[in-house]
Amino acid sequence: MAGKLDLDPRTVARARALAAKAGQPVVDLARSHTTVSVERAVLRLAGVHGADADGIPWVNRLVDAVRADVGLGHGVAVPVFHAATTTGVEDLTVLAQKAAAGSVRFDVPEKKAEIATARRLARRAAGAGLKIVDRRRAERDRLIKRFGDPKQRPWIYLIVATGDIYEDIPQAQAAARAGADIIAVIRSTGQSLLDYVPEGATREGFAGTYATQENFRLMRAALDETSKELGRYIRLTNYASGLCMPEIAALAGMERLDMMLNDSMYGILFRDINPIRTFVDQRFSRQVHARAGIIINTGEDNYLTTADAVEAAHTVTVSQLLNEFFAHEAGLQDWQLGLGHAFEINPDLPDSFRLELAHALLARELFPEAPLKWMPPTKHMTGDVFRGNLLDGFFNLAGALTGQGILLVGMMTEAVVTPWLSDRDIALQNVKYVLNGAGNLHEDFTPGPFIRGRADQVLNEAIDLLERIVDDTLMDAIADGTFGLMKRPADRGKGLDGVARQEEDYYNPVEEML
Amino acid sequence: MAGKLDLDPRTVARARALAAKAGQPVVDLARSHTTVSVERAVLRLAGVHGADADGIPWVNRLVDAVRADVGLGHGVAVPVFHAATTTGVEDLTVLAQKAAAGSVRFDVPEKKAEIATARRLARRAAGAGLKIVDRRRAERDRLIKRFGDPKQRPWIYLIVATGDIYEDIPQAQAAARAGADIIAVIRSTGQSLLDYVPEGATREGFAGTYATQENFRLMRAALDETSKELGRYIRLTNYASGLCMPEIAALAGMERLDMMLNDSMYGILFRDINPIRTFVDQRFSRQVHARAGIIINTGEDNYLTTADAVEAAHTVTVSQLLNEFFAHEAGLQDWQLGLGHAFEINPDLPDSFRLELAHALLARELFPEAPLKWMPPTKHMTGDVFRGNLLDGFFNLAGALTGQGILLVGMMTEAVVTPWLSDRDIALQNVKYVLNGAGNLHEDFTPGPFIRGRADQVLNEAIDLLERIVDDTLMDAIADGTFGLMKRPADRGKGLDGVARQEEDYYNPVEEML
Amino acid sequence: MIVRPYGDTTGDGMVQLSFTLPIPHDKRAEGAALQLAGKMGMDPAMLVHAKQMGDGFTFFVVYGKVGHLVDTDKVQVVERDFPLLSAKEVNAAIKRRLRRRLNVVGACIGTDAHTVGIDAILNLKGIAGEKGLEYYSELSVTNMGAQVSVPELVETAREKKADAVLVSQVVTQRDAHLHNTRAMSAAFREALPAGKRPLLIVGGPRFDELMTGELGVDRIFSRGTTPREVASYLVHALTENRA
Amino acid sequence: MIVRPYGDTTGDGMVQLSFTLPIPHDKRAEGAALQLAGKMGMDPAMLVHAKQMGDGFTFFVVYGKVGHLVDTDKVQVVERDFPLLSAKEVNAAIKRRLRRRLNVVGACIGTDAHTVGIDAILNLKGIAGEKGLEYYSELSVTNMGAQVSVPELVETAREKKADAVLVSQVVTQRDAHLHNTRAMSAAFREALPAGKRPLLIVGGPRFDELMTGELGVDRIFSRGTTPREVASYLVHALTENRA
Ligand code: B12
Ligand code: B12
Ligand SMILES: Cc1ncc(COP(=O)(O)O)c(C=O)c1O
Ligand SMILES: Cc1ncc(COP(=O)(O)O)c(C=O)c1O
Predict the structure, then answer these.
(1) Where is the D-Lysine 5,6-aminomutase alpha subunit domain positioned along the sequence (chains A, B) (predicted)?
(2) Chain C contacts of B422, Cβ < 8 Å?
(3) Catalytic residue among B4, B373, B379, B494
(4) Active site residue C65
(5) ipTM of the complex
(6) Domains present along chain C, CATH in parentheses
């Protein structure tokens, strides 16, 4: 598939080098900070679970208590396990309950031996969590071997979002039976700004269902059944982005989710989360994903819902290069990089479809080993559902012609409602028609000067922008509205108070083992 | 556009030579026969018009009277004009009325001078009719110069079919405003089996509106207005095929229709009209179209509604070659040959879209100068209107990719109702999206081995079939169900009694002047 | 069982509706569209798309909730009230009970020239992998083809001593299929006394199978009919009820 | 004026309808679909498509004629009851009548993060070629962005001495937009006495503009609103009625 654009390898190499240069300061920042959510993720892996009567998880209570006593900068592992030893309360969940009741105080031991003991215990506990993650990964490998991967590329990705996990399950199963390879359960609006992960099975989300460990478990179990029934392993996706990225990543690893939405900048741009908080959280969460064998999906498509898809095409490329750099740095392999892009050019623009092909092919050829995630039209969808289904058909065709890896199925009711059962069925029928009837059309697709020229232009604009970012720093670029027209200064945004600079003696048993 | 398939010019030449060989005996047959409708067409051009109280046109009454007295074999022109001279009734319509009342008898004059006089008068009268045709053609040229041709290829062809000419008119105008370049008024079901042309403005057709001279006039006048309003000449189409092909061709010429459905075999196959009747009628009608500068549309698409579009692909090619041969023989130029073909492959077939491209491109490259008419999916359309609109979109794309000349716009309600106003609007929006966004995709379309191989295969199958037809005669092939699975023996079918062998002294002033 | 339409949650009652009103697009037109949706029982109704077409028409798409309940127990359907037989069983039943071949005459009447449907039922080739009635050795089939006039049909039915007449009607504009069917059944009633009248069967994709009484026919077949169903019905109606 | 839906002939009353019923596909399900169409006033109704989805659901497409009449004179719409002013006129009117800048506070409230709509109204960039309210020299605009809580909004409005509060709501699932708007207007009623309360304006693509009373707001703007309309309304409501 690669090689239709004749991209100059030196230009490509230069783009990558610039991205690394632009990204490195952010990596340094991430390595030198921690956040409440990173620490809670450690405790979740170490076995803390459940929530208090108000629904606030014990991990939150525990981290808040530690933080009140000694701050976050040392990491919570040592204070917590030290307290466990000194109090003799080995069950951390019980410890958290006691801490919440004010009957435990935390401190950072001074003695080398005490530190060593606390660290050892922490490592053992967190190791047990990672072992679950490893077991889940092996289980996935086994199930894929048994049931098989989808027969075709792109894999077909469908959204379920009733708000009620018990409605979601049959809908997801129906979607899989109708041809979906990947089910994504969209979260309730607003969850990404909760600084905790809700607990239990939930039935009351708005335009999405809460991401909880129990919901993950229920849906994964249901899809395992369906995988068996269909003889095809159905992947499950959820969202890491938000204030709880690291924790959700840990839960996803422990419940065998297969893909996670995880973008290095989405939270900053589209949820107004503090940039530093996001960069720290995304790094840790990606390390966990790497370990869990989870494919990440980045969020470049979102830029084109606010910015113009032609004018801002190069910002997508820049962001993909940055996401790739950050992902590699966190240990993710190329096959785990579901880099995002989207079919969002104004359909009234002359040659709009060919411009889409140019952009999609550029991404394909810049990241030949990555399972690119191709997002459907949303911005230019209207209440005209007949036209909507047509646009989605051409989106599907562009996906097939340019060899995309993951196809998020577009819905004719995009501008109207979250997908109905029948919308999904109509949409899948659309995908099937296109892939079956025209899926091999790439054999007859040899981009001419228009498409090649446009791809070159976008790549060059991306390089120009990267040069500017290298000069000004990525943080400033984000503050200036470079991506998706959103202006997000580094000292603003939600969740900044959950960030702490790592002290000399910062210890994180999970990071150590990743 | 041409040359993407690398067809072997010798193979193509061989196919054409075979078609000529297969068609010649039919031409000989057509030249040696006449029909009631050919003779009525002559009289219409000579100025007979109107109908009796039962709605039976005076041309029918007159031809029937002549026939009863002297048979058809001499042509009606000489007996009629001889009678006009001898009775002194110069107005032929009055003569027809008298003939119907039984007060005139016809005979074939014996004297050379009488014959010469009758022929001269006939020539003059028919010449006046042809002059109207010529004037209309010049008028069209002028209007096209003034208002311009459509800006894009393919031209967009839309059907109107309310059954009521006064509903048709605003709908046609709305369609033109919305982007149609060509308006076709479909006829009422069953009109093609009427052995006369109804008179006057009509409001009671079933699934179509009667083709009458007055309806032609009303619609053409309305579209002239709209052409002016839009600064784009809107073409008008109707149907010649049927028992009255020659007459309708004459009326179309006199009322400045721009295109006519006119196939050499459609009437035989799909209306069970006698083969000889059809071949005679089509030849004369095409001579009239040639004079009128009318583009014909052939009906190969229909085969694929009854036969399978993949199995029978080569029968389409054979029929196109035959239609071309007959058309050239009748004096039509390449630019007047709207040869038909259609997007009718079962959409569930793997690579169905690429097979469509192969077939469409084969037609394109076999007839590079002809404005091919590309017909939308009908057979595999269902009540699922959402899927229908998608299929139509891919049909539009195939049309653009393969450079079709005339695009008959598909309707999402194909399997439900004759098109609603809103169906046409949705359909036009579909066409516009595809042509605007992907109309130039042919630049990036370079058929690979699959498409090239399929085109070759169809062409070779066509040659094999033509060889068989040359051996067995075309009449036998038609009798055997070669086209559209319809079996039509030469001695059966409707309208056979309206055919007569030409006598030695057969005279037809119109044919002489064409 | 009582059910409601289902969008994405049990009981949400959601439906999609589109239509054109013969008025230009403005706020009042949108209100008019919502008024219609309201009269159809949509509440709340969301007008999600409005587009003017030409001067005086506007197309609307409306989504919304209907309050109507659907009671599946009150649904009237023409359920197959006869066993579905194999070709062998059909032939055997006719042989045993009728002791002669059963005569079938088929046609598209009126100006309708859509023969694919009736051919699918009658011709050897059949449809959907099932052979047509010509394949059944105990059926004698006359397929008159398209655009057959009612008098011709009656004449042929009489001549062939038809046990059953099968008529196809595909064009429905201005209710052509209903008019033609009524004309056909009336002609048979007029031409033949009750006992001598063949079984009248009509078929086509847009018929309502409940309308037999109104149309004066014995049975109506609609979308997706297969030859076996028709053959089985013939056996049931002609050898069980009558013979 | 009395009108009917238009398919292809005046007065034909034709509409298209689609929906899902939570039952498997069989003849009874088709009858159930027709029953629903009948209850919606479609007669005759043609069931033209039915497709089972999964085990227990079937999707239907129905075409048919509705008898309902639409009376355009009875349509209630919120017509623009104020003149559409240019930016110049807006500024001049505020200057003349208010003698100070008019304070506007805008936000997406609740968990809604769809800022494109409110940004289109407020930000300089505007929409559809029209500049947003920030462009108007006599308007002082505070755009609080997305996911703003109601208490924050009330607080900011008080602090900025807002003359008008502009709230956007795009997500409508489970009527979130209605709940959030009601909560917002209730909070303002609670926090501020009648005379001190800012003008409450809410907007979003799925609002019904007639619901102001029910939602406790002064005005609702829906699909396709432009900044000029909003500015003109502000002038009308704040300088004419109140000042
Ligand atoms: C093929 C076709 C044609 C072919 C017909 C060739 C032929 N020899 O039959 C051609 C190209 C000639 C044609 C022409 C026209 N057609 Co046409 N055609 C179609 C098409 C594409 C498919 C119909 C078909 O073959 N279906 C497949 C068969 C197997 O299905 P079926 O007929 O439903 O039959 C099944 C059942 O209904 C049942 N059944 C049917 N009959 C009977 C009878 C008995 C006794 C029994 C037991 C069962 C039974 O069993 C069958 C097997 O399951 C439809 C659109 C569509 N996709 O449906 C339009 C369609 C039917 N045509 C239409 C029209 C208007 C025309 C024209 C009148 C247009 C014109 N004015 O020129 C012409 C003229 C035809 C005429 N005089 O009748 C309209 C009818 C609109 C309406 N509802 O009134 C349609 C719906 C297209 C449209 N949207 O405009 N057509
Ligand atoms: C862009 C977009 C996004 C972007 C938003 C970026 C941003 N910064 O705004 C992103 C990608 C982040 C996003 C995310 C989500 N989205 Co979203 N999104 C859209 C999309 C594609 C376009 C919306 C848009 O920008 N329209 C253009 C603007 C200009 O139009 P407008 O909002 O109608 O505004 C106009 C008028 O309504 C009016 N107006 C609006 N507000 C106001 C206020 C006032 C005071 C006034 C006077 C006028 C006014 O004036 C404006 C100009 O004319 C729509 C689908 C669609 N095509 O409509 C889905 C859509 C709105 N999203 C939807 C959903 C569900 C979500 C998510 C909740 C999904 C999830 N669970 O993850 C998330 C989360 C967002 C959240 N927490 O709210 C649904 C809502 C379904 C429903 N009806 O309930 C939609 C309809 C898609 C769908 N079918 O599922 N989305
Ligand atoms: C990368 C990424 N993360 C998260 C989300 C959704 O997040 P939220 O739950 O905040 O709406 C998206 C939505 O498109 C996304 O692209
Ligand atoms: C060549 C040709 N002539 C005529 C017709 C229509 O003829 P009728 O009026 O007999 O239905 C068609 C219909 O598709 C056609 O293709």
Answers:
(1) 5-512
(2) 18-20, 53, 57, 59
(3) B373
(4) no
(5) 0.94
(6) 2-72 (3.30.30.60), 87-240 (3.40.50.280)
